[in-house]
Amino acid sequence: MSHHQVHIIGGGLAGTEAAWQLAQAGIRVRLSEMRGSGDMTPAHQTEGLAELVCSNSFRSDDADKNAVGLLHQEMRRLDSLIMASAEPAKVPAGSALAVDRHVFSGAVTRALADHPNVEIVRERIDTVPTEGMTIIATGPLTAPALATSIGQAAGMEHLAFFDAIAPVIHHDSIDMDQCWMANRWDKIGPGGGEGKDYINCPMDKDQYQAFVQGLLDGEKTVFKEWEASTPYFEGCMPIEVMASRGPETLRHGPMKPMGLDNPRTGRWPYAVVQLRQDNASGTLWNMVGFQTKLKHGAQVELFRTIPGLQNAEFARLGGLHRNTFIQSPKLLDETLRLKSAPHIRFAGQMTGCEGYVESAAIGLIAGRFAAAELLGRALTPPPADTALGALLGHVTGNVVSADYQPMNVNFGLFPTLEEVKKKQRKEAYTSRARASFGVWMGEMALA
């Protein structure tokens, strides 16, 4: 094959999807994948492209009531290789889309191997290319040498090696009759305002002690061997590990009540759980300091014992695992280019999206942005009220939380629809998204 026009590093879901989109646009691609060159990650088992490591599910396929199902639909409309390869690989999973891993990976690998515009090269890339259009999609287990090179290109302080994910709650599910808004000691933040940036959930002594016991007793997920040996772990202590260091530890850590007068009693509570705004529109709030390895079911059960959160609906539950990702909102422009080196785009989990489908979706749009740039065409990002646009917005700048963390697509990332009754809201989000997406696709065809 003649000289490539785009170099894609990483043959996972994002890299393969980006390669397909570019190749279909008539652009020659070199796809570098280290598996098959004598190198392996600690989690992969095969040399197949787009190997599914954790689960075999792409989650809900319901495009009317579910944000990830809507994302499936949008990707299908954009000729997604990942979604097309899932079809012949389907296994029964109710309303979810789940696949036979080997059939799925085989379909992706064959489609790219047979494409005249794609050259698959089994090689390990250790340094970020200094020139030539490049898409880096090496995923959560990026090889150490390349991770260091990415850190040098982006700034080491903007590269993370662990998700320290605190749970995120939909604001409209919080009972504000039990909580109140305030900053500790009523301090005004750097942006001014009224000093009411946090939602505070108060606990009395009995509630606190029961909660600490629940943290200690709850079922935990365990670190895999290759996660446990990662040196970056100490910086993000799980809340249950803090609790195990003594019954009062949390009251002097993330649950300290000092400086927080409960307006209903005029006094400090015994302990407090604070929520901080997580996105620009204020639909999502995160539990400050609550990264955890509790299993998801145990988290829901325990966190709903917190006053004010008894009906909490979670956009994301807490977690802590090995992951390499960059602080995308600071580093990338709206077309996923590294601002300091615009010949490089990032895609997939490296950008701080969570989940197979989301990784592939960011790969898809990265490929389309790169194709448009090479072909001299304008490509406006998808509208913020579509699933793809909402996810891209999370990655490229809608996050206000100081510590950017990976996120699945969910309706909390979409612009709000306040005037719609809660029961009809999901369908309202998806029908608005479909209309917007159709208009955007029409504009794209004319560009």
From TrEMBL:
Biological-process GO terms, alphabetical: tRNA methylation; tRNA wobble uridine modification
Cofactor: FAD
Cited function: Catalyzes the folate-dependent formation of 5-methyl-uridine at position 54 (M-5-U54) in all tRNAs.
Keywords, ordered alphabetically: Cytoplasm, FAD, Flavoprotein, Methyltransferase, NAD, NADP, Transferase, tRNA processing
Protein name as catalogued: Methylenetetrahydrofolate--tRNA-(uracil-5-)-methyltransferase TrmFO
PANTHER family (alphabetical): GLUCOSE INHIBITED DIVISION PROTEIN A, METHYLENETETRAHYDROFOLATE--TRNA-(URACIL-5-)-METHYLTRANSFERASE TRMFO
E.C. number: 2.1.1.74
Localization annotation: Cytoplasm
Sequence similarity: Belongs to the MnmG family. TrmFO subfamily.
SUPFAM superfamilies, per the entry: FAD/NAD(P)-binding domain (SSF51905)
NCBIfam families (alphabetical): gid_trmFO, PRK05335.1
Reaction equation(s) it catalyzes: uridine(54) in tRNA + (6R)-5,10-methylene-5,6,7,8-tetrahydrofolate + NADPH + H(+) = 5-methyluridine(54) in tRNA + (6S)-5,6,7,8-tetrahydrofolate + NADP(+); uridine(54) in tRNA + (6R)-5,10-methylene-5,6,7,8-tetrahydrofolate + NADH + H(+) = 5-methyluridine(54) in tRNA + (6S)-5,6,7,8-tetrahydrofolate + NAD(+)
Keyword Translocase appears in the UniProt entry: no
Domain MnmG N-terminal: 5-377
Binding-site residues, FAD: G10, G11, G12, L13, A14, G15
Gene3D superfamilies per UniProt: FAD/NAD(P)-binding domain
Protein species of origin: Sphingobium psychrophilum
A GO-annotated cellular component: cytosol
MF term (GO), any: tRNA (uracil(54)-C5)-methyltransferase activity, 5,10-methylenetetrahydrofolate-dependent
